[in-house]
């Protein structure tokens, strides 16, 4: 009898993970979330297949950055008009929408291909500890215990 999972529906089943971002460093947390969204933690990982899981992040307002990044880190975008380069500091972006720095960090760590938006749709970020996906959660992990 074979023990191989192969290309079955069970192998591609999506698991819901919850991550508590309280007092976690932004970049280190974002790498683990991106790995889970891509499905690299599964033995059936294929870069061209979408086999990643759902990730629910709670307490995003309490995320940390190291060094002087609170004052110095800049997020830039261009409006496509002459002189349209816009800059916003980390602390201003976090005050405006505390989920956005984490979403931008995870987005930057995903491959730039047609699966990027699909994978980001499976990322659910919440400022507090309450979320509507409690019934779906199968795994709870932080940085230390995946």
Q: How many beta-strand segments?
A: 6
Which percent range fits the helix content?
25-40%
Unreliable stretches covering 5 or more consecutive residues: none
N-to-C SSE series? Answer: EHEHEEHHHEE
Radius of gyration: 17 Å
Can you describe this structure?
This protein is an alpha/beta fold. It has helices at 26-38, 69-72, 90-96, 100-109, 116-121, and strands at 16-20, 54-58, 74-78, 85-89, 123-125, 137-141. Helix 1 (26-38) crosses helix 4. The longest helix is centred in the first third of the chain and has 13 residues, at 26-38. It is globular and about 50 Å long.
Structure in a nutshell:
With 146 residues, the chain is α/β, with parallel strands linked by helices. Helices cover 27% and strands 19% of the residues. Strand 3 (74-78) and strand 4 form a beta hairpin.
């Amino acid at each position: 009898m074979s023990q191989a999972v192969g290309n079955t529906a069970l192998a591609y089943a999506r698991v819901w993970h919850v991550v508590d971002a309280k007092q976690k460093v932004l970049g280190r947390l974002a790498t683990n979330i991106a790995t889970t969204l891509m499905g690299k933690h599964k033995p059936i990982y294929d870069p061209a297949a979408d086999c990643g899981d759902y990730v629910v992040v709670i307490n995003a307002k309490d995320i940390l950055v190291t060094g002087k990044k609170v004052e110095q880190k800049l997020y830039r975008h261009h409006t496509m008009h002459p002189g349209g380069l816009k800059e916003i500091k980390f602390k201003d972006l976090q005050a405006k929408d505390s989920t956005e720095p984490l979403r931008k960090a995870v987005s930057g760590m995903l491959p730039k291909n047609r699966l990027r938006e699909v994978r980001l749709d499976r990322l659910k970020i919440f400022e507090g500890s309450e979320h509507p996906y409690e019934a779906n959660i199968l795994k709870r992990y932080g940085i230390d215990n995946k």
